[in-house]
Amino acid sequence: MKDLAKHLPHYIVLFGILLAGFTGLVLFSYSKNFQVGIAIATAASYVSWGIVHHYMHKDLHFEVFVEYLAMAILGLTILFSLILR
């Protein structure tokens, strides 16, 4: 529980990033181009958040970066398949 309290501000920022991305996808449902841009921006923000979070906690390694990048690419693949169908 103590570990969660230590990281809570970081997770609130992550939740805000993902919520803003989801809200953007819903609000711009009339434009596939906007949705693609929002999806890319959200994925880039997610990767950036992961880098900053792990850098601040001094456990940033190349494998961690690759994991965040892989999750972002997976998320983009899923979103693109839904947006561009």
Which labels suit this protein?
85 residues; mainly alpha; 3 helices; globular
Short structural description:
The chain has 85 residues and is mainly α. It has helices at residues 2-27, 32-56, 62-83. The radius of gyration is 14 Å and the shape is globular.
Tell me what the structure shows:
By secondary structure, the chain is mainly α. It has one domain. The chain is 86% helix and 0% strand. The protein has three helices and no strands. Helix 1 packs antiparallel against helix 2 and helix 2 packs antiparallel against helix 3. It is globular and about 45 Å long. It starts with a helix and ends with a helix.
Strand and helix layout:
Blueprint: H1 2-27, H2 32-56, H3 62-83
Helix pairs in contact: 1-2, 2-3
- Would you tell me the structural class of the helices and strands? mainly alpha
Number of strands: 0
Q: Count of helical segments?
A: 3
Spell the H/E element sequence.
HHH
Q: Which segments are poorly predicted (pLDDT under 50) over 5 or more consecutive residues? A: none
The whole-number mean of residue pLDDT values reads 95
User: Terminal Cα separation, in Å?
Assistant: 43 Å
Percent of residues in helices: over 70%
Q: Which strand-content bin applies to the residues?
A: under 5%
What number of domains?
A: 1
Oligomer: single chain
Tell me the major beta sheet: none
Rg for CA atoms? 14 Å
Overall geometry:
globular
